[in-house]
Amino acid sequence: MNLLLSLPPKDQFFQTLWYLINTYSSFFIRGILITLLLSIVGTMGGFLLSLVLTMLRTQTIDYKRDSRIKRWMIKIGHIFADSYITVFRGTPMIVQAMIFYYGISPLRLFWWTPLVAGLFVVTLNTTAYIAEVIRSGINGIDKGQMEAARSLGFSRGRSLVLIIYPQAIKNSLPAIGNEFIVNLKDTAVLSVIGVFDLFRATQSATSSNFRVVEGFFIAAIIYLIMTYFTSMLVKKLEQKMDQSKELSHA
Amino acid sequence: MKKFFVWSLLLASLSMLVACSSNEQFDLNTETKIVVGLEAAYAPFNWSTPSTNEFTLPLDGHPGVYVDGYDVVMAKMIADALDLELIIKMVDWDGLIPALLAGEIDLIVAGMSPTSERAQTVSFSGEYYRSEQVMVIRINGGYQDATSLNDFAGARVVAQLGTLQDDLIDQITNVNHLEPLDTYGMLATALSTQAADAFIAELPVAQGMVAANSELKIIQFEGTNGFTVSDEEVIVSIAMRQEDVNLLEAVNEALSAISDETRQTIMSAALNRQPNA
Question: Which domain CATH number covers B66?
Fold first, then answer.
């Protein structure tokens, strides 16, 4: 074995940390990269898909003009979006991971790996949460804006896309950033289907030496660094938005 | 109406998912590779490592991660005998049988005992290792002088989730049977942190853990002082899908070519490759 260090005795906490970092650095780095990948793809993908849900949900039926088919389409859209959000927010991600990964595995798709399944699940899950975030963003926008847009001759769709959505999304950005932080931590549950995220990497790093507390102490510090810097960025973003608000009122 | 829609959607997607499992037998003539599932966290049977040696194999889908251990060496010998390319996948212990049934893996070579309960869902090869069940305790934890199971009355005993060892705990009278944990790493931690007084393990596993952690000690039982175990509970076997009868025959044939001495040599070599403090 080409180990640089030998395993220190059990009571030497800091030496054990050093041993684990040295011997298993490749595991930890890979775990960090996979955790970041899951969180970034999950949050970005979830944001994009949540726009689709938002559009489905904000459609309204115009009983005077809309044809029967259009009314049905809008209704089905509402039901789909609502039940999607209910199901994905109402079940734990670890349960969704088990159902999707093992449910689709029998199809023997060569690309259906734990990582792909993990990306899939975290994206679908985040979609539901961000859709709710954007919904509250839309609710926060003064009704008068829509009324003004309509009276200026914008159609309802154009008012939504050009006036309401951009403001709602902008106001939602800090909350979406928080969703990213949540994902950094919560993707640890995806290790249950064999995704080599930071949690699983730590488990693997302790699989032959059983220094579990020391291993997860390192993982905790890494998670903390990642979430700390992201929340700093989110805070900066919030401050910047507050500034621009003050300026526009001045 | 809304409820009906949600339920029918759920049911439709579930039935779609369930309907697709294949029933074809593993074809030894046409298949070129065989996929083995293991935990990669059950040293000295199987563990993960970032470094390579002549025994390690890469872990499928995880570049830079390798597996080593008794199971890996045995799986390689079987795959060679069957003239198949060996692919190793890491699957959690309680996910192994679901992964096998889902066709995700073809064999479980993970130190699994062929209990009659498991044999209802999967079929097992003959034994590929035989050992005894021992107790692992913490030195100075109050149980270091135990010689029989009766000495563990009142002790807090723990085991891994979904294992034979978890069932064996109930053979101790007046035991405090703790909730099972996910990995052997957690069992060792439960002992070191005094969250438990003892856990049950197969002898080689216990040996590897004690080598890495001098606070721990093995208690072996003599004669009738220990657990009452049937033959199927002291051996480990290779699990496969019940429809794969040809594969079962081929695996058994490959196993019969590996002598007991060879097995012992492979196991002690694996124990030596495990880090010790």
Answer: 3.40.190.10
Residue B225 has pLDDT above 80, yes or no: yes
Asked if residue B48 lies in contact with residue B59, where contact means CB atoms within 8 angstroms, the answer is yes
Contacting residues for A46 by C-beta, under 8 A, at least 6 apart: A122, A123, A124, A125, A126, A127, A129, A130, A179
Preferred mutation among B71, B94, B189 to probe A, highest tally of A CBs within 10 A: B189
Among B201, B217, B232, give the residue marking a domain's end. B232
Q: How far is B148 from chain A (nearest CA, A)?
A: 27
| Contact yes or no for B199/B187 (Cβ under 8 A) | yes
Contacts of A192 in chain B (CB under 8 A): 92, 95
Size of interface A-B (CB pairs under 8 A): 133
Residues of chain A with pLDDT under 70: 1-4, 245-250
Is B74 in the same domain as B201? no
Same domain, B211 and B165: yes
Cα–Cα distance between A49 and A161 in angstroms, integer?
16
- The answer on B126 and B29 residing in a single domain is yes
With contacts defined as CB-CB under 8 Å, which chain A residues touch B12? Answer: none
As a whole number of angstroms, the distance between CA B204 and CA B183 comes to: 16
Chain A residues close to B3, C-beta within 8 Å: none
Q: Count the residues in chain B.
A: 277
Q: Is residue B154 part of a domain?
A: yes
Those residues whose C-beta lies under 8 Å from the C-beta of residue B257, and which sit 6 or more positions away, are B81
Q: Count up the domains in chain B and report the number.
A: 2
Fold adopted by A32-249: MetI-like fold (1.10.3720)
Same-domain status, B227 and B254: no
Which among A82, A102, A203 has the least Cβ separation from residue B98? A102
pTM of the model: 0.84
Domain range for B225 is 133-232
Every domain of chain A and the residues it spans: 32-249
3-state secondary structure of A49: helix
User: Quick one: B126 and B257 in the same domain?
Assistant: yes
Partners of residue B213 in chain A, C-beta under 8 Å: 10, 210
Chain A residue whose CA is closest to B98: A102
| B127 within 8 A of B183, measured Cβ to Cβ | no
Q: What pLDDT, on the 0 to 100 scale, is given for residue B18?
A: 52
**B39 and B84 both lie in a single domain:** yes
Residues B69 and B103 occupy one common structural domain = yes
What is the model's pLDDT at position A1?
Answer: 44
Residue A106: the pLDDT is 78
Convert the pLDDT of each residue in B84-131 to its tens digit: 999 999 998 988 998 999 888 999 999 999 999 999 999 999 999 998
Interchain proximity B103–A105, CB inside 8 Å: yes
* Residues B157-196 pLDDT 10s: 999 998 999 999 999 999 999 999 988 989 998 998 899 9
